[in-house]
Write a structure and sequence with these properties.
CATH class of the largest domain: Alpha Beta
Number of domains: 3
CATH architecture of the largest domain: 3-Layer(aba) Sandwich
CATH superfamily of the largest domain: P-loop containing nucleotide triphosphate hydrolases
Strand order of the largest sheet: 8-9-10-7-11-12-13
Bound molecules: guanosine-5'-diphosphate
CATH topology of the largest domain: Rossmann fold
Length: 433
């Protein structure tokens, strides 16, 4: 879907506006204990049009009152977006920091909607007139807190956004498979990319007609062409002035959105970090096929190896279903192992289990391991089906709510019985009264 970014200096009410827009669209997520979800973009919808809403509220932790950086960081979000909502405090008017952002916005030549927030009553409407002077067109008076004016703002934003069909947001079928190479800074993404691409590097423009700058590369691996998405971001990273973690995550999310399979790169020279775990979680939440690649294997000695295997078991146990490839981007060792792993994960990601096989499997499973009786009642599974693949999604029709533990048990057995190596799977319930 097209991308709408919300930018503005700290405290103008960006987060409140984001909450207002996505209010009724709570994503369905598997509960994974111990993992905080800090989304930077959300699926949103207005008047039947789907779009991705990018929340830049997160930069406020980085900004620390350094004015120049607000504009600098907003710039990254704007580069990723198709249209921008620039929020300022309608009661304060345009400050010097706002003016700096406006300058940047003019240079970018992207559609901009000017939202004057905190206009909570009609008496205050006159406050927004001076904002015409910013040269960004008509200011939209809004109250993110009360919800007034946001409808008009969104109507205008939908007009400014291109139609979904023009964009690469929907994963196209056919063509080279799309790979997102992601991982925290310094794990060796750009080194690995160089090693894989060799001299055969083919740089391709992003989907025609888009204004976003990320560029993809076609790379041949295992006799097949693969499209590594947004590689420009990986190669350019070194030259970026503000490489804040928040924006690294934003880029990661964008790459994942465009890809079918994610290679999450880790490195043996440091313990598994919180950021590693978060990136893996993002890949899983995005519903992409997954391959874990462990880089810098040339640095491994006996002692480190001993601890590494324990670390992997402890910190990455929840994605033990993903194939793991050990590589060295430096020497090229095992670089030929990546393509088979990618193929395995993608094949399973597309797998469909027939309704017949699925129900035969469940019938046997439930007969051998019935759901525990709770308060004299025992929910029964009436029927199961797989309505979707990429990734596989299952729906169980039941006569009552299944225990979370029992649902996990079924999910685990599904994985063991059918091969879902390398793909997240989702199991939903529909309770029939
Ligand atoms: P990126 O930030 O993920 O793109 O990481 P880079 O590719 O820039 O690599 C970060 C650092 O790790 C650089 O100094 C690389 O030379 C080094 N590096 C990358 N891969 C390997 C590897 O396989 N072995 C060793 N020893 N060093 C590596």
């Amino acid at each position: 879907p097209p991308v709408l970014a919300i930018v503005g200096r700290p405290n103008v009410g960006k987060s409140t506006l984001v909450n207002r827009i996505i209010r009724s669209r709570e994503a369905v997520v598997e509960d994974v204990p111990g993992v905080t979800r800090d989304r930077v973009s959300y699926d949103a919808e207005w008047n039947g049009k789907d779009f991705t809403l990018v929340d830049t509220g997160g930069w406020e932790a980085d900004a620390k009152g350094v004015h120049k950086r607000v504009a600098e960081q907003a710039e990254i979000a704007v580069d990723e977006a198709d249209a921008v909502v620039f929020v300022l405090d309608g009661l304060v008017g345009a400050t010097a920091v706002d003016e700096a952002v406006v300058k940047m916005l003019r240079r970018k030549k992207k559609p901009v909607l000017l939202a004057a927030n905190k206009i909570d009553s009609t008496v205050q409407m006159s406050e927004v007139y001076p904002l015409w002077n910013l040269g960004l067109g008509e200011p939209f008076p809004v109250s993110a807190l009360h919800g007034t004016g946001t409808g008009d703002l969104l109507d205008a934003a939908m007009k400014a956004l291109p139609d979904t069909a023009q964009h690469g947001g929907m994963i196209p079928l056919g063509g080279p498979r799309r790979v997102a190479l992601v991982g925290r800074p310094n794990v060796g993404k750009s080194s690995l990319l160089n090693k894989l691409a060799g001299s055969e590097r083919v740089v391709v423009d992003n989907v025609a007609g888009t204004t976003r700058d990320p560029v993809d590369e076609l790379i041949e691996l295992g006799g097949e062409q693969w499209r590594f998405v947004d590689t420009a971001g990986i190669r350019r990273r070194q030259h970026m002035a503000s490489g804040s973690e928040y924006y690294a995550m934003l880029r990661t999310q964008r790459a994942l959105d465009k890809a079918e399979v994610a290679v999450v790169l880790l490195a043996v020279d440091e313990p598994v970090s919180e950021q590693d775990v978060r990136i893996i979680q993002m890949a899983v939440d995005s519903g992409r096929a997954l391959v874990l690649a462990y880089n810098k294997w040339d640095l491994l000695d006996e002692e480190r190896r001993y601890y590494l295997e324990r670390e992997i078991e402890r910190d990455l146990g929840h994605v033990a279903w993903a194939p793991r490839v050990n590589v060295s981007a430096k020497t090229g060792w095992h670089k030929d192992k990546l393509a088979p792993a990618l193929s395995t994960s993608l094949t399973n990601w597309e797998q469909r289990i027939s309704t017949g096989r699925l129900n035969a499997f469940l019938g046997e499973l439930v007969a051998a391991h019935p759901h525990p009786v709770r308060g004299g009642k025992q929910p029964r599974i009436l029927f199961a089906t797989q309505p979707a693949s990429r990734p596989p999604k299952f729906v169980l029709f039941t006569t009552g709510f299944l225990d979370p533990g029992y649902r996990r048990f079924i999910t685990r057995r599904l994985r063991e019985t059918f091969d879902f190596t390398g793909t997240p799977i989702e199991v939903q319930m529909r309770v029939r009264e």
